[in-house]
Write a structure and sequence with these properties.
Helix content is 64%, strand content 4%. By secondary structure, the protein is mainly α. The relative contact order is 0.16.
Amino acid sequence: MRAVIVAVGVAFLISLLCTPIAIKVFTRLKAGQPIRAEGPAMHQGKKGTPTMGGVVFILATVIAYVAGHLALTTLPDKQIAQVEPTITALVLLGLMVFSGAVGFIDDFLKVRKRHSGGLNKRGKLLGQILVGAVFGVIALYFPSTMTDAQGQATNTETVGSTTLSFIRDIPALDLTKVGAVVLFIFVVMAATNGVNLTDGLDGLATGASVMVLAAYALIAFWQYRHWCADPDYTQAYCYTVRDPLEIALIAGAAAGACVGFLWWNTSPARIFMGDTGALGLGGLIAGMAMSTRTILLLPIIGGLFVIITMSVVIQIISFRTTGKRVFRMSPLQHHFELAGWSEVNIVVRFWIIAGIGVAIALGLFYSEFLANVT
């Protein structure tokens, strides 16, 4: 727990203190956010606000991970097995950094062209597929080599699983390694695009991501306290996952970094996370679902992202089939803007929806545990 707290604190402070520096640097470089002409008219006042702020909290998360590992060296001997960096960290941080890199290319092209159209849809899609495929293979083909004091293997799990999962793996739904990699790619694409579509109002995606990442930190730490690889945990009912403390540490660090960034990103935003931050967070959240073996729980934890994504899907299908729009504008948050709601009002109410999804998911996760130990 100490390592997780250290990581959260370090990430928060770095993000809080370094974001103003990023604002000055990006302003000096004229890296302002172009605004779509077809978007809500009230957004034109945001034109020129520095973007690519996701760089700050991605770097803060990576640095905080290192700080958390330094704290791990003071933990009891039974926890020393996770002191060394793991494949789990490589997958999770890799998804965040390289998904963010795809977004950074998109942001860079927008700034350079002074136009809201950056990386084309095909290029962005190929980038997401490549990132998902590379880290999906790593997650499925490299088992743990953790051993106990006698040199016996105690945990030979991979980061991801070949079976579909809800609260934990569902053995009857075996996908094979190839199928699991395909699923991994799909989850990465869904999560990155979900967060990206949500990032339309000041602080909306950042605040929602804080809740989702905090939920995964709690889930992963609970799995660590009831971990099948822990020789001191004698209960029959445990979680078969790999490196849950690593997952909790990274999720906590990312949540802390986002809170620090939110101080400057909330309305009126002084900086935007851009696609750099949105895709980076989406990639990390996808990795969290895969590594904690809670894939089918992700749509509930990230319920707000699902709702906003579905509003876009419904709008497209309706317009292409009937020529009519269901919403005044999609994604959904812009529909309420055009209906006369204030930006702050929309953000706070959407945060409440995000919080409800997280609460339901955590309730399901814990109730499943209680049902099997009582």
